[in-house]
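Encode chain A's predicted structure.
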Amino acid sequence: MNPSMKPGDCLKISLCHCLMLWGTTIHSIKTEAESWNQFRGPSGQGISQAESLPTQWSEQKNVTWKTPIHDRGWSSPIIQNGKVWLTTATEDGKQLFAMAVNAESGAVLYDRQLFTVEDPQFAHKFNSYASPTPVADDERVYITFGSPGTACLDGETGNVIWERKDIECNHFRGAGSSPILYNNLIFMNFDGSDHQFIIALDKATGETKWRTQRSIDYMDLDSEGKPEADGDWRKGFSTPHVAVFNGVPTLLSIGSKALYGYEPLTGNELWRTESRIGHSASTRPTVTQDMIYYCTGFSKGELWAVQPTGKGNVTDSHVSWKLKRSVPNKPSLISKDGHLFMIHDGGVASCIKADSGKTVWHERVGGNYSASPLLWKDLIYFFSEEGKTTIVKASETFEIVGSNELGTGFMASPAIIDQALILRSKTHLYRIQN
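Encoded structure for chain A:
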């Protein structure tokens, strides 16, 4: 101890040091929260930490800029170093583009055709050939269209650093799963009619670090009860997610009819739950400190609450509860204060007790939904395919606090920058700000 120091000075210095570190941490979290660098934001859970966001807008009100986006694509916008990145494609799927828009002015900075596909796979008319959302780090942007091609772009120049066109998968209805980053790896789901696997690429080079085949191959049955090679039972659209449970990171990946837990660095399967109800799961997993919530898919899909432990098939032992009523097929869930909030594709919103699966409220909002909702403070934004945004209180009492309409409707989920919403309609990109 320094002889010139007075009693209590050590405590003061320690407290000041802790406060400085705490302040640095808070600043870091705030900066990350504003980056919105992947599908559903930095946490992957659709939560905004913005100080302020607009609750009222129209084509004539609170629109900072509006930029047309050519052709067709349902990928959600992301933010990287002041640029809004997204993808689009010709309706026939032969030309695949990456675009970057200046987040302040709305000016198009880059509009580059990344891939040409002479004989595109079939994509359902409801889908697009540019549905997976990009992901970015501080320097690069990673874009995939599924098996037609994956590319890494320099975030400053837009130049291609590396690309992969050799990952084979018949997407059957079109690609939909978005890539995510973890450490130096890019994770992508490939669940098609011919191949079902998850793959990890080195983000610096695009080299395959590991590839893990799904342990269960779900096949459709024909009229005679015999397996068919093609079919929706093998198809998946979900985006993976890395969560930490009891200090252990787990890569969560939903296939067509199962949720898998993997070791992120090796791809080794830890456990799985198998659902015979629903198929072609599309939502991104929603997580809390000790639970995973996911929707099992189309047809007769359910919402399952899963404990993230165990080994092998843990369907019978680790599924805490199941919910059947008005479970979404495409929009992911919101978790807040022990409750789950969701919007069914057909426009019915629900609040669910996260510990029991008990329905708190169940109300018709109207419209059709593909975009995932946004949570900001105590408000939830639901974005419809018709262009209407309904804002409700994230509480045990159902209350609509706002309703706004724009253009041609939303298939893409929102992005946030500073105190503004970045919204992609079917034809335009908007910056909405008070």
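The chain is about 5% helix and 40% strand.
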